[in-house]
Amino acid sequence: MPVSRSRNKKSKVKKKKIVLSRKVLIKNAITKQDERGILPVRSLCSNFSELFFNISPDFKSEFDVEVASGLSDKIYYKISDKPVREVAELKSYSEPGDAKSTQRIVLYENYNQFLWSLCYSLLVLFDKGIHEPRLKGVYKGTFVDSKQVREAWELFKAGISLTTEFKRTVFFDLPNPEIDSNREYVGLANAIYCAALEFILLHEFGHHFFGHYADDPNPEQSKQDEFLVDDFAIEKMSAHFSKEEGSTLKAGILFGTLSFFFLDRRINGGDTHPDLDDRLNEIIDRLELDELNNLWGIASLGINLWGHHFNHNIKIPRIGETYKALFKDTIEDLKRFK
């Protein structure tokens, strides 16, 4: 997610590619067998693009203004059989012989598959492995075992493996959006995944909106720019928070943010990005969650899974605390890993 100097705008607060636009124009992919992509998440391309382009009536006009000032009117969806290296980016591009470059918002299918896997596995591991057992009084500090929980754990491991190696076929043998649309939790995972990508796309659009075209030599300004475009994205989505889809949008923002943790064993954001604990704190506060909201517990579980993956000693959620209190304890513990 590149950053740089801002222009004076005020916020209201080996590869081939598929190309998505407001017309959902899809070009050739890496395989001739299916031109939409090579992973099950390919089936949701039109879902998240439609959600993004129709987030609000004023966004359409804002998007057109940015297109007039050099932003491509398409989302570039890149197909790769390599491990995840990028989440999304705003990238300069010029056609051969063309002196003028455009800015493109680019998504990566391998990251998108990891994101969907995280959405599904977090939902099931929390709901079936922790929350429902707590309500029944049988939760003892570890996941309550069931076939559904074991399958979700396998999907989590498959998803996270995409950060180190690329394997394709395993995702077709586990819960996935292409063949399991009527399966319990798959539909909800689809909706949260699309909301997460909407947050990520709005974040990248925000970089163009505020003129973050090149690397900024001022690290502090770069970090503030990241907070700024997070706020921009959340504000656009917050217009729907009081509607029926509000809880799904909030979950998408949270799940998208949690996914960033799994790309590094440390939470230090370096010279250009905020530390992940600070960023997560800022974002979850903007969601204005009730202290009993399950998203606090899912956030804690996400951090615990990150710790488990990188062999950090973070405790699994305990009994006898509100989920909000649990999250605050967990996020405080993260400071050890900067």
How large is the share of residues in beta strands?
A: 5-15%
Number of domains: 2
Count of strand segments: 4
The 3D shape can be described as: globular
Overall pLDDT level: 85
Order of helices and strands: EHHEEEHHHHHHHH
Helix percentage range: 40-55%
The value of Rg in angstroms is 20 Å
Q: If helices are DSSP runs of H or I spanning 4 or more residues, what is the number of helices? A: 10
The poorly predicted ranges are 1-14, 21-34
> What structural class do the secondary elements suggest?
alpha+beta
Largest sheet: 4 strands, mixed
Roughly how many Å apart are the termini?
20 Å
User: Spatial order of the strands in the main sheet?
Assistant: 1-2-4-3
Topology (SSEs and partners):
Layout: E1 16-21, H1 45-53, H2 57-68, E2 71-79, E3 88-93, E4 102-108, H3 109-136, H4 147-161, H5 186-209, H6 219-238, H7 246-261, H8 276-286, H9 294-309, H10 323-333
Parallel strand pairs: 2-4
Antiparallel strand pairs: 1-2, 3-4
Helix pairs in contact: 1-5, 3-4, 3-5, 3-7, 3-9, 5-6, 5-7, 6-8, 7-8, 7-9, 9-10
Compact overview of the structure:
With 338 residues, the chain is of the alpha+beta class.
Describe the 3D structure:
The protein has helices at about 45-55, 55-70, 110-135, 145-160, 185-210, 220-240, 245-260, 275-285, 295-310, 325-335, and strands spanning about 15-20, 70-80, 90-95, 100-110. By secondary structure, the protein is α+β, with helices and mostly antiparallel strands. It has 2 domains: about 15-110, no CATH class; about 110-335, no CATH class. β3 and β4 (about 100-110) form a beta hairpin. α3 packs antiparallel against α4 (about 145-160) and α6 packs parallel to α8. The longest helix has 28 residues, at about 110-135. It is globular, with a radius of gyration of 20 Å. Residues about 1-15 and about 20-35 have low confidence and may be disordered.
